[in-house]
Amino acid sequence: MDFLFCKKEGVSVKRIESRSNPLVVRVGKLTSRKHREEEKLFFFEGAHLLEEYLRFGHTPHTVFFTDEAMKKYRPLLSSLPEEILCSVPDAVFAKLSTEQAPQGILTVSSYLSCVREVSEASEVPGRVLFLESLRDNGNVGTVLRTAAALGWSVVLSADCADVYASKTVRATMGTLFSRNTYLCKDPVSFVRSFHGTGRHTYAAALSEKSCMLGSFSVGERDLFVIGNEGQGISQELLDACDSGVLIPMTDAAESLNASIAAAVIMWEGVRNRA
Predict the structure, then answer these.
(1) Mind giving me the DSSP string for 164-186?
(2) Which residue among 14, 186, 248, 249 is the one 20 to 30 A from 256 at the CA level?
């Protein structure tokens, strides 16, 4: 049998004992971006992320948990519909988990309505940070978390690290579930759509038209571009921006980590409002 049914702390749930169970195999494939996009499903781990996910009104597809997790997080798990709960032994959970120290809870979710594609400036409110080709999941997740804290919108080029990768979701610490995140297939066209709207566009890069961060006021609806960790901003996107911007720093370091540079720029926008 693929499924058994059992009682866990008074809750009737499915029980999967086999690592080759079709559902386990299906969820295991979601570590691949290709399979996530085909299924329109992703997963994340941990009690805190599940609490944040539920707090912002989302509904899980499936929640896997170990026996130990049921003992530790019984109120949280017992609050969920029984039909989405799936109890598994440690060996099965280990096949699904990507964490070094898993908590024994893994949530499978459909793609989020708050992650959406955009093509023009008018679709994105407020101050905007545009990420071009950032490949590190931790950087992307950290930028999303910082932007949520500081009130900026974030737009990602299509070749950025996937917001639905488990490492990215973990780095957002749940803010992925609470705010709109925007995806863009044509970065140059998107940045050019700001022209003539009164919204200025800045590339975080050295160029003939660069100015120093702090020497001008960040507008309420301006856009800043952060480029790839190794290659920086593409020439096409650099040319599409009105100006470049430099972060004041000593000569002791050649550059800043992409997520740190983004945080400094976003904080300057907050400082302007103080």
Answers:
(1) TSHHHHHHHTTGGGTS-EEEES-
(2) 186
User: Half-sphere exposure of 1 toward its Cβ, with a 13 Å CA cutoff?
Assistant: 7
What is the average per-residue pLDDT within 123-131?
98
The residue-averaged pLDDT of 144-159 equals 98
SS3 184: strand
The label of the residue with tokens 């995140």 reads 181
Of 122, 155, 123, 126, whose CA–CA distance to 270 is shortest? 126
C-alpha 88/C-alpha 22 separation (Å) is 14
**pLDDT(5) > 50:** no
List of domains in the chain:
4-110 (3.30.1330.30), 115-273 (3.40.1280.10)
Q: How far is CA 186 from CA 54, 89, 161, in A?
A: 33, 45, 16
